[in-house]
């Protein structure tokens, strides 16, 4: 059984200006010892998903769906139980976390606090454990005595990573963990996370807008657009051979140092980022899609298995009418049991391959 | 305003309209933070000469903790130099409150951490209008200018964001609010600390194209602090590579990023996924510590060239002689005994 199961997660923020449906039906599973990467455009709902998993969203957020953590539904869990889960079961590295350190306490104290409360390490050994953790994130032990303002942005970010790992959680949710870090430290932190996942059977959900970070360190990759997963599959396949036009654009746009074509020519996507409160009919990506067709205005595609005749497409799915076309009936069977992390794919027996547009909220 | 597809190459001229005096420069700049509890002070910026010319984009790259943000803050007068100075249009920067205020209307800083830069109780509108109000009072066209700045920064339609509070925005949206706040005063110089680090390709491309457009007209100058060498390749004219408080290599992007001379720059480039390097150089040794700058070349203990014996001829100098502070100007320079020995 997967350690984490998310089913049809929907989150809507209530604001004076109206509802903001930030997450519109996201599902995935994550086995112990595996890593799922979550990518997508700024504002597409990645952090909202991360916060929902531990019920850390503000009160203005309405949540629906199911989040099963080790078989228990997080959304219906009692408060006390939820607290226990947050301490020991799962931990999260928040986006922009460097800002959330307590300004008037030494960082060593802040790392030690959860370890003391957790009680898994004898009291007199806590300082040593703090030193180990700092070392793992590339900081010398004496940095424990520094205050946050004495650290650079990337150093603070690494303190937050050390804190998240302090109690050896079973699930780590890392929201843009390496965004502020240079390639060297990034490589070092990713290797550390890799080792932890491998040695301690930790599950990890890693969020980043940087596909190159995710492709190198995750088993599977889900790409979100406008509150939904639009493509999912083995990380390498999604990066190199994406089937959803948005995922393809995301993968192709990274500049290559030394390539004359990208010199002074930063790539991007045409058009405006989607407004969750005012999505177009049909496919949400339609106004910016390079291969849009007439029917895209009428059909709101759901995740659908990618034709397995072509090489490397096993266990992959994408939400695009062009994928619906090519899917052969036998492709739609149960997901491969060997998979470590899977995104829920529409069940062909009960779900039509299209949903009526605009009917989500 | 519309965004353009990234498929066609941008029409930006290939080289900047450089003039002779730099608009903004540092001369032998040092910033040292006093140590506490018997620890030595931290030499965060340890002698830097860096020139920024009109219409020029310079990328400042280097590993976490090497002093990039401290240098950026010193350029804005937010950190006082312990030695050396910051020079704006040929004049030393003056630190009197009024002088600084006038200066900051023309030179804008985009801070590294957008969450820390925004007041949680201010709406997006107030955050973006703040600079305008400080410098111009209540401008009649305030609303249009705020909306225009948001829209240029990729927050469209701007009405959707005007009354939002920072906690109602995603990380990347916050970052764009900070960028809009810097752009609204039409500054001549922008010092941007990791401006697009939390943005995905689509928004990133848009902001970078905006910087390129402003550079061409009206000749904006920008120092962009980044850990992303691809960003330097995308927009910068020159790149300066910083290591432990010093610039160790500087020069035109094409030169430094395709034929790096300093072993540290070589290592940085080798870990890029696309470098195709058969064996990426992941630097070993202690992470650099600005409270204990090594003697000789400050990189020698981690230098892969020295370790491999390729720098045999200069090894004594690597361990015993500081390669020194690089001069300013636009020429390519490198602070390395081995590279300068032409081998
Ligand atoms: N508290 C809130 N109230 C109203 N809207 C919100 C709130 N928090 C987030 N949103 C909106 O929900 C959408 C999704 O936000 P989220 O933070 O999940 O994006 P993200 O994918 O993490 O983006 P980024 O990569 O920029 O961090 C955004 O459009 C954002 O403006
Ligand atoms: N107020 C301070 N007191 C003491 N040391 C400081 C202070 N501010 C920064 N430092 C130290 O100075 C060095 C340079 O910090 P700086 O923030 O300039 O690094 P950076 O290059 O911007 O790094 P990053 O990429 O992680 O943001 C770091 O080692 C940091 O710990
Ligand atoms: S001076 Fe010597 S130690 Fe320093 S980078 Fe050059 S070769 Fe390496
Ligand atoms: Mg986010
Ligand atoms: Mg910094």
From TrEMBL, chain A:
Location of region: Disordered: 257-279, 327-361
Domain of life the protein comes from: Bacteria
GO biological process: peptide transport
Any Pfam family the entry gives: oligo_HPY
Lipid bilayer topology: Peripheral membrane protein
Composition bias type Polar residues, residue spans: 351-361
Keywords: ATP-binding, Cell membrane, Membrane, Nucleotide-binding, Transport
PROSITE patterns in alphabetical order: ABC_TRANSPORTER_1 (PS00211), ABC_TRANSPORTER_2 (PS50893)
GO terms under cellular component: plasma membrane
Domain ABC transporter, chain residue ranges per copy: 4-251
Gene3D superfamilies on file: P-loop containing nucleotide triphosphate hydrolases (3.40.50.300)
Annotated protein name in UniProt: ABC transporter ATP-binding protein
Source organism of this protein record: Halostreptopolyspora alba
TrEMBL record, chain B:
The keyword rRNA-binding appears for this protein: no
Region of interest (Disordered), ranges: 1-21
PROSITE patterns per UniProt: ABC_TRANSPORTER_1, ABC_TRANSPORTER_2
Superkingdom assignment: Bacteria
The keyword Transport is assigned to this record: yes
ABC transporter domain boundaries: 24-269
Alphabetical list of InterPro entries matching this protein: AAA+_ATPase, ABC_transp_ATP-bind, ABC_transporter-like_ATP-bd, ABC_transporter-like_CS, Oligopep_ABC_C, P-loop_NTPase
GO terms for MF: ATP binding; ATP hydrolysis activity
Pfam families: ABC_tran (PF00005), oligo_HPY (PF08352)
Positions with biased composition (Low complexity): 8-18
UniProt GO BP: peptide transport; transmembrane transport
SMART domains listed in its UniProt record: AAA
Alphabetical UniProt keywords: ATP-binding, Nucleotide-binding, Transport
PANTHER family, per the entry: D,D-DIPEPTIDE TRANSPORT ATP-BINDING PROTEIN DDPF-RELATED (PTHR43776:SF7), TRANSPORT ATP-BINDING PROTEIN (PTHR43776)
Stated family: Belongs to the ABC transporter superfamily.
Protein name per Swiss-Prot or TrEMBL: ABC transporter ATP-binding protein
